[in-house]
Amino acid sequence: MARTPNFSRTEGAAGRVLARDAQKIARVGMIARWQPVHRGHALVLDALCERAHEALIGVGSANRYDWRNPFTLDETFDMLRLALAGRSNYRLIPVPDQADNGAWRGMVLDLFGPLDLFVTDNPYVSTTLASTFHFMKPVQLIAPDARVPLDGTMVRHAMACGTNWQALVPKAVAEYITVNKLDARFRREFGLETLAMNILH
Q1: Cβ(80)–Cβ(45) below 8 Å
Q2: CB of 115 closer than 8 Å to CB of 28
Q3: 115 shares a domain with 31
Q4: Are residues 113 and 164 in the same domain?
Q5: Between 56 and 198, residue with greater pLDDT
Q6: CA-CA distance, 20 to 51, in Å (whole number)?
Q7: Looking at the domain assignment, is residue 2 inside a domain?
Q8: Residue 13 has pLDDT above 80, yes or no
Q9: 47, 90 in Cβ contact below 8 A?
Q10: Beta strands 117-119 and 90-95, pairing class
Q11: Are 19 and 10 in contact (CB under 8 A)?
């Protein structure tokens, strides 16, 4: 089992993040849905690639297409690549949902292999993989004064309302969504459901 990385503050292109004092760690993994990739995600993605020789970036619920997952796997991959422009030390991995926890855990271990660090803020993921990996929350990678208090639900709500969702995502991602009319498709297919579910929750 790898030892806990030692992080300290440094300046970076994406803002001040928590960086490792000594050498980079070898392999770091993360699973999120990235629906869509937003500005908070962009900071974490940059930190993952900066701090590790190889970042394995999983797209969770890769087999879902619904109001919580309104972008296809290919579209999500495109948005991740745009957010990671200029980086080459990463690999994108589809991670479909499984009905059985044990099957999901086995699949993740096969897909990711040994890791020095696993980054997640998802209790299900950390609980299911607790015996295998050392964990860190995404927010711990970002210095407090550089954090963006944002999540995918907020972005999808703004998109459903037709308000300024573009300001919540990286510019290249906003252009990709707009050019491909994915925001219009989202509002048409899932807009009302998104607004209703936000009210219920």
Answers
A1: yes
A2: yes
A3: yes
A4: no
A5: 56
A6: 7
A7: no
A8: no
A9: no
A10: unpaired
A11: yes
Place of tokens 């297409």: 65
Q: In this predicted model, what pLDDT tens digit does every residue of 92-112 receive, in sequence order?
A: 999 999 999 999 999 999 999
Query: How many other CB atoms are found less than 10 A from the CB of residue 64?
Result: 15
Domain hosting residue 127, numbered range = 7-146
User: What percent of the chain shows pLDDT beyond 90?
Assistant: 85
3-state secondary structure labels for all residues of the chain: CCCCCCEEEECCCCCCEEEECCCCEEEEEEEECCCCCCHHHHHHHHHHHHHEEEEEEEEECCCCCECCECCCHHHHHHHHHHHCCCCCCEEEEEECCCCCHHHHHHHHHHHHCCCCEEECCCHHHHHHCCCCCCEECHHHHECHHHCCCCCHHHHHHHHHHCCCHHHHCCHHHHHHHHHCCHHHHHHHHHHHHHHHHHHHC
